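Box 4.2: Ligand-aware structure prediction
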Amino acid sequence: MERKKVIVSERIADEGIELLKTELEVDYRDGISREELLEIIDQYDALIVRSVTQVDEELIRRAKRLKIVGRAGNGIDNIDVDVCTRYGVIVANTPDSNTISAAEQTISLLLSSIRNTAWASEYLKGGTWDRKPFRGVELYGKTVGIVGLGRIGSMVATRLKAFNMRVIAYDPYISDERFTRFGAEKMESLEELVKEADFITVHTPRNEETMHMIDERILGLAKEGVRVVNCARGGIIKEEALLKGLESKKVLSAGLDVFEKEPAIDNPLFQFKSVVVTPHLGADTFEAQKRVGENIAEQVIKALKGEIVPNLVNLPAMLKDELEYLKPYITLAEKLGNIYYQMEKSAVSRVELTYSGPISSNETEILTVAFLKGLLEPVMGDKVSYVNARLMAEDRGIKVFDHKEEQSPKRYKNLITARVFDHERELAIEGTLSRARFPLLVEINGYETESNLEGYLLVVENEDRPRVIGPFATALGDEGINIAGMKVARKTKGEKAIMIINVDNKVEEPVLEKLSQLDGIVGKPILLQL
Ligand SMILES: NC(=O)c1ccc[n+]([C@@H]2O[C@H](COP(=O)([O-])OP(=O)(O)OC[C@H]3O[C@@H](n4cnc5c(N)ncnc54)[C@H](O)[C@@H]3O)[C@@H](O)[C@H]2O)c1
Ligand SMILES: O=C(O)[C@H](O)COP(=O)(O)O
């Protein structure tokens, strides 16, 4: 079989490239121009980028085969995630792989800027031994204000506690417990934080809300001689405001790894000796890049095999353990979804999903999108993916409702119940996992069963009387079709009944037609492929 193709448009660790090569054809084009990438992107199933490649609508529109954009790193502000979602392209990143390096770089920038390390080094290498201009300040006993107490902000907090600093933080989106856990005093506003902080370090994502959040007004409220660090994203501290602050000596030093415009060359902030700059090196350690490269390679390989990957940006975030637990239920939901259009040929107007039992305490949105993906696949093929299944359902006018129940209403511990409506009728199906954790159909339109949702499944309606089931099974055998499993069910004795038969091979149309003529068989048997 032809191998799937990935293009890597920026430098990632060799370990990542080697891992990719075990399963994929890899085109490693570090620094490829935008024009060339636009030209050839339609040949690839996956694209791996860092923070430079702009993944926008123009690129995605041309990327006809693209299934996944892998961000070898954390920030995704160079990727238009909404566009990717609309086109069904998965976006995955590696948010935990470079956080330690970014936190350490923050501390490094803080220390080197307040101790004039870079400036003194330059001076001494220039041939002058002089100690007077470089007197710095200590961290000990001072107050650091952390804006954004997420992954990196919290690591910075715990590390600075070891310097005997008072740590205060502003992050309106996290619980009080998180402040306590990381030994940070909670500030109710950014204004409150800057008034108290001797040093300010920012660790938020860059978005509309945070761009220029530290501007002239906020710096105006800060202590005289405040010192700042930005190892998150350029522009969170407005560069123009910082420039003015440095000129007026309101701000005494800055450590900057990121800039409003990158690559940053001739940035006016470079003129200040008290400003230490690095060219976006926060994630650039051997350890972080190895982790990032291997992690993104693993995710891309998985995604191209149709598996769910842990750090999907355009799906709800899940913990690794939660994802592992939910995986077989994701398969179950997808297979249940897959049944409708194989049985009915009329458009769906509404889907109602119920998750009961302990699964309901998890992030069940992934189960809903898996069901919708399975539902739409027979009609939309591989245009539908986990990331756009909800959008596609909406586009087709399907109303989706899902809800959770703590207790399963049946003897099965966990249950997924689906009701799919067209304008007149409904298909009701229910599934769970077998002991071996394989998908099991346990009810269909009120008929109870226990049938493996795997391979070929024949659904046959019949009259509930003797000499119907036996001849049907014999007829299947006469056609060379082996029965792997069979369940019969009825609601009321003597009325209509149902056979659900797992068969080892495909039953062709003429055979289905022939089977429908057998005595006691109602309508044409339906073959499901799952
Ligand atoms: N310099 C580098 O090389 C480098 C490396 C890794 C990450 N980063 C950047 O570091 C930043 C932080 O990354 P992370 O992994 O810690 O992210 P994260 O998502 O774990 O944490 C961000 C925190 O910011 C908070 N936040 C969001 N908006 C806020 C606001 N308006 N005010 C205050 N807090 C707000 C969130 O609640 C969250 O707790 C990101 O911008 C990321 O791109 C840079
Ligand atoms: O967001 C990130 O992961 C960092 O900013 C690193 O970006 P990079 O991969 O371009 O070094």
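In the box above, the bound molecule is 3-phosphoglyceric acid. The mean pLDDT is 95.
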